[in-house]
Design goal:
The protein is an alpha/beta fold and 359 residues long. It has helices at residues 16-21, 32-49, 63-73, 88-99, 117-126, 148-157, 206-212, 224-232, 242-258, 260-280, 307-316, 343-358, and strands spanning 5-6, 54-60, 80-85, 104-108, 130-136, 138-139, 144-145, 161-165, 184-188, 199-205, 296-300, 319-320, 322-323, 332-336. The chain folds into two domains: 5-10 and 260-358, Aspartate Aminotransferase, domain 1 (Alpha-Beta Complex); 16-257, Type I PLP-dependent aspartate aminotransferase-like (Major domain) (Aspartate Aminotransferase, domain 2, 3-Layer(aba) Sandwich), CATH 3.40.640. The structure holds pyridoxal-5'-phosphate (PLP).
Length: 359
């Protein structure tokens, strides 16, 4: 099959080393070798992202599974979740709360707006039944960076927890779980972590995870403490996607070698190069520069150009871009810079884009 440069926000192009990990061989998840793999992945996740006081729970499934495990497990009986909603993924967390009969309070903002911090503070002050705030770090709908540290500080001052959907952010944005006041954080292997689809994970303050053992079990499969308790015993409750876990193990080795700081810097440099090129071509950005993440750029389609035509012409040249989503499905296109790609790949993409636009 032809290989494409993937400029969609996951799944991403991975290195030959991560691809090779798929071939480590067949393995029964009840054998010692799998327990060793589980322990290795959990400890590498903590080394990469979580300082002392946190625990890591890998789960087989996509990013949505990790976010839903976090949302459905983290609320005590009768307490409410405050959802900050400024895009498709904030909206999805609200739907998850509804699905699990968790009472939710929504603060809704435009898709190109940042949340209003005083309103969050006021909502927590006036509603003592709220026990946690749910926020998306990188709202992938638009490539908008939400103010995690600011919301974390508000939640901490108010004695509430912060649940973060960092599915498209972790590894691509600066994040300090302790400093930023993040109690639980959900992520996937196949975006900025540069692994393959099929495995996701939750990072949690160990105390918060232990407290969840007494919370209602709203789902059998998604209940985080069930997975955590088994993993603490070097086991897992259900059959894992073993080969995807191998790939995550290799991707974490690469990440630790590169370092998270250097990866964030690499993504930022790639985004800067792309944005310079877009501006030179006269393309218009959906978001102002200070709102933009390091790994995705949303652009208005130029006059007279359809998404389909742009997509197909670029795909012919080896590049896969991404369309808008929801109410932004038409009118914009998205270009991600996640994965095992070099500045040269992005330069070649800019060249192809310029040719397609000129034609
Ligand atoms: C912020 C965010 N949350 C959740 C998801 C859902 O992840 P998945 O499609 O892997 O279930 C995505 C996917 O793009 C995302 O960007």
């Amino acid at each position: 099959m032809r290989q494409y440069i993937l400029l969609n926000p996951g799944p991403v192009n991975v290195s030959p080393r991560v691809q090779q990990a798929l071939l480590r061989g067949d393995l029964c998840h009840r054998e010692e070798e799998f327990s060793d793999l589980l322990v290795a992945i959990r400890s590498k996740l903590l080394r990469a992202f979580a300082p002392q006081g946190y625990t890591a729970v890998p789960l087989s499934g996509s990013g949505t599974l990790a976010v839903e495990a976090m949302i459905s497990s983290a609320l005590p009986e009768g307490r409410k979740l405050l959802v900050i909603n400024n895009g498709v993924y904030g909206e999805r967390m609200l739907r998850m709360a509804e699905a699990h009969r968790i009472p939710a309070v929504e603060l809704r903002y435009g898709w190109t707006e940042r949340p209003n911090l005083s309103q969050i503070e006021e909502t927590l002050r006036t509603d003592p039944a709220i026990s946690a705030v749910a926020l998306v770090h990188h709202e992938t709908t638009t490539g908008l960076l939400n103010p995690v540290a600011e919301v974390g500080a508000i939640a901490r001052r108010a004695g509430r927890q912060l649940l973060l959907d960092a599915v498209s952010a972790l590894g691509g944005e600066d994040l300090d779980l302790i400093h930023d006041g993040v109690d639980l954080c959900a992520c996937t292997a196949n975006k900025c972590v540069q692994g393959l689809p099929g495995v996701a994970f939750v990072l949690a303050r160990t105390e918060a995870m232990a407290a969840m053992q007494d919370y209602p079990r709203r789902s059998l499969y998604l209940h985080l403490p069930l997975h955590w308790e088994a993993q603490e015993r070097r086991s897992i409750p259900f059959t894992p996607a073993v080969q995807a876990w191998y790939a995550l193990d290799a991707a974490l080795d690469e990440l630790l070698e590169e370092t998270v700081t250097a990866r964030v810097r690499r993504y930022r440099a790639a985004a800067a190069l792309l944005r310079e090129g877009f501006a030179r071509m006269g393309l218009k950005f959906l978001l102002p520069p200070e709102y933009q993440v390091n790994s995705l750029t949303s652009l208005f389609l130029p006059e007279g150009m359809t998404y389909q035509r742009l997509h197909d012409n670029l795909k012919e040249r080896g590049f896969v871009i991404y369309e808008g989503q929801g109410k932004l499905q038409t009118g914009i296109f998205r270009v991600a810079n996640m994965g095992h790609l070099t500045l040269d790949d992005f330069r070649r993409f800019l060249g192809a884009l310029e040719t397609v636009l000129a034609a």
